[in-house]
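Just wondering, does anyone understand these tokens?
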Amino acid sequence: MHVFLNPGHAPHGNPDPGAVNINTGLRESDVVAAVGNAVAQYLINAGVDAEVLQHDDLATVCAAANNSGADLFLSIHCNAADSSAALGTETYCYPGSKDGMTLANAVQRQIVDNIHTVDRGVKLAVPGINGLYVLNNTDMPAVLVELAFISNEHDEALLANYQDAFARAIARGVTDYQRTL
């Protein structure tokens, strides 16, 4: 199995760091880069081929994924909201993708069960409504995981201090999915 990992936003946050915690300065691009690279290493250690591409151009990301021969695509992000009360983990998949839904459920379950984030559930990214570009433009089963809310004090602490735990949970979600094949 070959997994293509896409930590969201631009490498080193330039030009787009994604969401930034206004109190601590923690940047989404940095968190997801660390998590994505660790996920790749855990997958490789488990015998799963993995590659990582963090890039600020989503068309480039999708083209690279589609040309990579990947069996799965995972985009990794941190959520943010205007309300500091919003918290938890949610995972998106493309409507009608049975394998995408299975992968999304496996990743969501591992994060919620192991890091004890609030379970916001698995959601569908519906084109034209709330479609997410990378899910709509990749050829393989794809998910986008929002690890936690960088704008929430509790979740921000998890994102700052438990990056390895998030990575292990995502990798276990992939291997759980692999066992269903």
Q: What stands out?
A: Strands lie at 2-7, 49-52, 72-79, 89-93, 119-124, 142-149.
